[in-house]
Amino acid sequence: MADRPLALVGGTIYVTPDADPIRDGIVFIKDGRVAAASGATVPPDTEVLSCAGCTILAGFCNNHVHFFERKWSNAAAIPAAELMLQLQEFCTRFGFTTVFDLSSPWANTRVMRERIESGEVPGPRIRSTGQGLIANGALPPDAVTNLMGVMRYPIATVGNATEVGAAAKRLVHEGVDGVKLFLKSFPVAGIAAAVAEARRAAKPVFVHPNDGADVLTALKAGVDVIAHTTPHSGPWDDALLAAIKRAALTPTITLWKSYQRHDRASAQEAIVATAVGQLKSWIDAGGTVLFGTDLGAVDPDPTEEYELMAAAGMTFRDILRSLTTAPGERFGRPVGRITAGLDADIAVVNGDPAKDVRALADVRYTLRGGKVIYRAAEP
Q1: Global confidence as pTM
Q2: Which of 4, 45, 113, 192 has the greatest number of CB atoms lying within 10 Å of its CB?
């Protein structure tokens, strides 16, 4: 398909989250890149995908996923067809053409990425931090990891800033795309050491905070992405919000409802309301939002996350930015736009997400590099 021109015909096109939509437009794709997005006619010898009744958007990025579940073990030995189906169920059926893995066994994740990039297996672009850095004594017990379905693999821990810096340097040398810190019992000086090491390699630093105090400490140390809201510690205060500066947030609101699913409905509602409030306060303070769900620890369907982001005051265009241009600007290509010359990473969704954000999860086609990597079954 990459050798033959392709046209996505008849949909409403958002070339960027901020642009006026092109109604009944056509996206032309050639050699894996966007050639044009307009209302022109389709030339001969062009493959056509009907997008009538659909909205055509730049491919989505989930900026908080994990390839640590047992189903990804020994990625080199998973048959290509099975791996493709797992990736579809995990992310591509929901329009995700790029994912950022925030802690998994790096050697295994790298093998999976290489199989995708070689063209053997259709799948998303994978960025990864490799194994996140964990403080001595902070590893969860086997009972917890077994319940979460986490594969067994050796995990090194760190005890002080020197060890953190050395571990971050080693990960960067091994080719990761960022560094992840789990802040439970983590040495405070170690956060700055990781940031300094990552900065030298122009890599972002993500942190898993446990409460608002962790968020404030991480922000003061100059981290790039706060990987969770922290609803169990209550609303975020003015001191925290004043320290946002250039940091971004992946809200992961649905995660908290999932964790509270064994509790009374009122408890679930309270924890979700606090997380929604934290996201709203972050937005009101001018903070950047990157879409992220902690995929691997939650159900793949992002519908409820979109609804909760809307409940925090995010419009369709705000949510689309968090899925496309915001990660593109922070992490580089793809840049989250349907623009001539850029990779043809595209999500085609049924309906109009500007009217109902739940349509963002109702995907008809997912294209990466101009190739269809997911196609919904015909009704």
Answers
A1: 0.96
A2: 113
